[in-house]
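Chain A, query sequence.
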Amino acid sequence: MTHRTFRVKRTYAEPARGDGLRVLVERLWPRGQTRAQVAAEAWLRELAPSPGLRRWFDHRPERWKGFLERYHAELAAHPEAWAPLLEAIEKRPVTLLYSARDEAHNAAIALASFLEAQRA
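Chain A, predicted structure.
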């Protein structure tokens, strides 16, 4: 079986044929976008960071390491929320969708790294 990695993509980018299962992993709906534009097959709000953690992080790169530690701890406490994505990636590509402007420091990147560690 081919080893697939979780893909990460902004909701504002055009959907592509190779995206596979498109999953929105934000607690809030992307501002100004319709369901057709986002083209997500699922919206898994429970995978997003808690509101308190999201406010604390505030997309500040200097808080990235602390955010990763705290968010990964939140995820570890709720395997029922992310386990279906581990099953899905074995069957087809999975693209985690986010709306943040920062393409290097966002919850979808953190979630993808957590999920890859769970697969290892």
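DSSP finds five helices and four strands in the chain. The beta strands are 7-10, 21-24, 42-43, 94-98.
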